[in-house]
Amino acid sequence: MSRSESDGIEMPDLEQLRPYAVWIVLALVLVFLLMTSFYTVQAESQGVVLRFGRFIKTVDPGLRFKLPLGIDQVEIVPVRRQLKQEFGFGTAGASNPTQYSDEQKEERNMVTGDLNTASVEWVIQYRIQEPQLYLFKVREPGRTLRDLSESVMRTVVGDRTVDEVITIGRQEIEVEALTELQELVNRYELGLGIDQVQLKNVNPPGPVQPSFNEVNQAQQEREQMINEANGEYNKVVPRARGEAEQKVQAAEGYATKRVNEAEGDVARFNAVLTEYLKAPEVTKQRLYIETMRQVVPSLGKKIILDDGAKQVLPLLPLTGGSVQ
User: Does Transmembrane appear among the keywords (predicted)?
Assistant: First the structure.
């Protein structure tokens, strides 16, 4: 051991450390090999293992081993994460570099089927289904997907009028664009699955925006008036039909009643006629008595005098009752 002349600290002799230098270097190399031989695949990802740049296998999440010194290389691909790309606009702070584009203003300007222009903003959401195809089949798959999406959207929008694009045709455009985009992705073997194509803001160009707003307002007012008229129609017409049906049923009931009464009168008359033919005098006497039984009670107080009576006094009602 030697001592430093300035601070008096003893320093190890280099001659004594020389035998251990080889072991120190070997230990450092071993640590480096261990550090480069293990890697971790996150839960939402898969690892694509390359050996001397050639695909070997795909591994699932967890702690994995690979050959060190750059022999094996691993590409981590987020297969369980939903990715998205935005067209015509960009979200601030986006972490996915393919989510936004520097050509947003240009890609949202489109020509419709009736030779009008529209500003279309949309979003696609997708997942990486086959990591090997995504990494090695097509160069810059994110950029390729953007080009395919823009091409499909321009084609779909170009087949419709500006009114359909802005108002009633949005859902149909989304469904058709999703189908056609997935077909192109499969044809190019990008290894992607398209989950959704969603239209965001769809507006006419700025210079004609006020005119389109007036047209839309007029259409909304027209629809409102039509709905109000249909509502009034549905309220008045069924009520009138109900009243008419009620009157018809009342008339039919009255007609049935009169017919039944007439038939009853005919049957009763026929029955009386039959009895009259059998005994005319008896039948006439019975009819007379029945008639008087119905008529006399409605006459009120009455006095019946005998032809031989000499005076009225003995027959006056002294008890307040009627005399018959």
Answer: yes
* C-alpha span between 255 and 247 (Å, rounded): 12
Report how far residue 231's alpha carbon sits from residue 141's, in angstroms, rounded to the nearest whole number: 55
- 125 lies in which domain range? 83-204
Q: What is the pLDDT of residues 40-53, one digit of tens each?
A: 888 889 999 998 88
H/E element holding 62? Answer: strand 62-65
At 256, phi and psi to the nearest 5? Answer: -60, -40
- Of 276, 90, 35, give the one whose Cα is nearest residue 200: 90
Are 265 and 250 within 8 A, CB to CB?
no
Of 165, 188, 204, the one marking the end of a domain is: 204
- Torsion angles phi and psi, residue 285, rounded to 5: -60, -40
Q: Which residues of 125-134 are buried (b: 16+ CB within 10 A; e: fewer)?
A: ebebebbebb
The DSSP element (H or E) to which 141 belongs, if any, is helix 141-158
pLDDT at 19: 67
Q: Mean pLDDT of all residues in the chain?
A: 82
Counting the structural domains of the chain, the total is 2
Secondary structure (3-state) at 4: coil
Q: What is the pLDDT of residues 81-132, one digit of tens each?
A: 999 999 988 777 666 666 666 556 678 889 898 888 888 999 999 999 999 9
- Confidence tier at 284 by pLDDT (50, 70, 90): confident
Distance between CA 318 and CA 175 in Å, rounded? 107
**Domain of residue 175, CATH code:** 3.30.479.30
